[in-house]
Write a structure and sequence with these properties.
The chain has 468 residues and is mainly β. The chain has 5 domains: 54 residues, no CATH class; 86 residues, Immunoglobulins (Immunoglobulin-like); 91 residues, Immunoglobulin-like (Sandwich), CATH 2.60.40.720; 107 residues, Immunoglobulins (Immunoglobulin-like, Sandwich); 90 residues, Immunoglobulin-like (Sandwich), CATH 2.60.40.10. Helix content is 6%, strand content 43%. The chain starts with 13 loop residues before the first helix and ends in a 6-residue tail after the last strand.
Length: 468
């Protein structure tokens, strides 16, 4: 069966052949007219025939379906809305509408020009009452609206502390008897098995809440917590209680105080140094008492007397220049004591303290060096040999007899006169570390009234007269 068509590109068959024939005939006629017009000078004329016909085609048409499984749940004044994306044509996005008392309004911050691409959203600041939600799917100019879902917002649903933390609690000690109750209009709800969670709110010193933080309510709607504790001391802590579907609450502020002192810690530098002195001049050195969690222990703590160990000839003073020794103690209500240390003897000392079972966590390394040079010391062999080479040593000392590190020049001379001339091959030496060694000295024959004198940087010393 052949169909009639107006297309010049129809399917092959009688009709297509007729079209071809008509084209050929039309060309001949037009050519003839042009020839005649040329010959006879007349204006060209044209002619054509139309043909009627029908055509048909097909196209796929999709359908935008509405979202399904729309649900809404309220916690205090926040409503959580979720839905399932429709099958088939995927929406560009969604917008949510909340209807309250017959008045629709945008929800979740969405709208026709502000689409939500996820399949859930949160509508905040919703007033108490009954609200209906619908979700509209959008694809270009098409929209599909879900079934409505109703939710009741009851802002009076809350949790409340029936017994909060004490104003002062001890670090690491359990806060027993904390009670949190589910309430509606300040009335307890006899709802058992509802989980209540407590967490830290205000956290002034970065403490950590330890213990069982989630407890189910009993038959009176109350959850009781008995082992919560915070180990870091500080003032201004709060606890936050929460439960699904209920408005949370915050406890009154409280203070966590240090536990009993169990250790002494050097909070200043653990290595100090100074020069030999008759007064305490090295410091300040600070020792602090702390509890087992590292909190400075002061509140409610008695005076604590410190017992230094291995101080040798050292002494202590509360201020620089003090003349100790004094007893060291941390006053009642204080966490630490600062002091100065002194010693006449140069050298290294390790200071450590203890007090009534409390031990220091580390030693304090003290290095005492010699004070400035103030005298000389001359040393000879006893007895001095006759006609044999011997040595003499000159030390440059501080006022306390500590050998200095001086490199001053030292001169050694024979001052016994003609009765005891002493041969000194090298009478001048630079000291090394406060010491000058003279070698190859000689006294020939039996002599009396022998004296050696050492001189350096304004200091002088002579030996006692001796005989050989």
């Amino acid at each position: 069966m052949f169909s009639t068509t107006s297309s010049l590109e129809g399917p092959p068959g009688p009709q297509r052949e007729l079209v071809v024939f008509r084209r050929s005939l039309l060309a001949v006629m037009v050519g003839t007219v042009l020839v005649l017009g040329t010959v006879f000078g007349s204006v060209p004329a044209f002619g054509y025939w139309g043909a009627a016909g029908t055509a048909s085609t097909t196209a796929a048409v999709g359908t935008l379906a509405p979202p399904t499984n729309v649900s809404a749940s309220a916690v205090a004044s926040t409503v959580s809305v979720s839905w399932t994306a429709p099958a088939g044509l995927a929406p560009t996005g969604y917008y949510v509408t909340r209807t309250t008392d017959g008045t629709p309004m945008p929800a979740c911050g969405s709208g026709p020009a502000a689409l939500v691409t996820a399949s859930s959203c949160s509508d905040t600041g919703v007033a108490a009452g009954s609200h209906t939600y619908v979700v509209t799917a959008v694809f270009r100019s098409w929209t599909a609206v879900s079934a409505a879902v109703t939710v009741v917002v009851d802002a009076s649903n809350k949790v409340a502390f029936t017994s909060g933390p004490a104003a002062n609690v001890t670090a690491g000690a359990p806060m027993t008897g904390l009670g949190v109750q589910l309430q509606t209009n300040a009335l307890g709800l006899a709802t058992a098995g509802v989980p209540v969670t407590i967490s830290i709110g205000a956290n002034p010193n970065g403490g950590t809440l330890s213990g069982t933080q989630t407890v189910n309510t009993d038959g009176t709607g109350t959850a009781t917590f008995n082992d919560l504790n915070i180990r870091t001391a500080g003032a201004g802590y709060t606890l936050v209680a929460s439960s699904p579907g209920y408005e949370g609450t915050v406890s009154a502020t409280f203070t966590v105080t240090a536990a009993s002192a169990s250790q002494l810690v050097v909070t200043s530098s653990s290595s100090v140094s100074g020069i030999a002195s008759a007064t305490a001049n090295i410091g300040p050195i600070t020792v602090e008492r702390r509890d087992a969690f590292g909190n400075p222990a002061s509140i409610g703590q008695p005076a604590l007397t410190l017992q230094p160990t291995a101080i040798g000839t050292g002494y202590f003073a509360a201020a620089a220049g003090g003349s100790g020794p004094i007893s060291l103690s941390i006053p009642a209500g204080s966490a630490s004591v600062s002091f100065y240390y002194g010693n006449r003897t140069a050298g290294s000392t390790a200071l450590q303290f203890g007090a009534q079972g409390v031990t220091v966590s580390q030693a304090i390394s003290v290095v005492v060096s010699a004070a400035p040079a103030s005298k000389l010391q001359l040393t000879l062999p006893d007895p001095v040999p006759r006609s044999t080479a011997f040595n003499a040593t000159v030390l440059i000392l501080d006022e306390f007899g500590n050998q200095t590190a001086s490199t001053a020049n030292v001169i050694l001379t024979s001052t016994g006169g003609s009765t005891c001339p002493i041969d000194i091959p090298t009478p001048a030496h630079d000291a090394v570390g406060g010491s000058a060694l003279f070698t190859g000295l000689r006294i020939n024959g039996n002599r009396t009234g022998c004296i050696l004198t050492a001189t350096s940087t304004g200091f002088q010393i002579s030996s006692s007269p001796f005989s050989v």
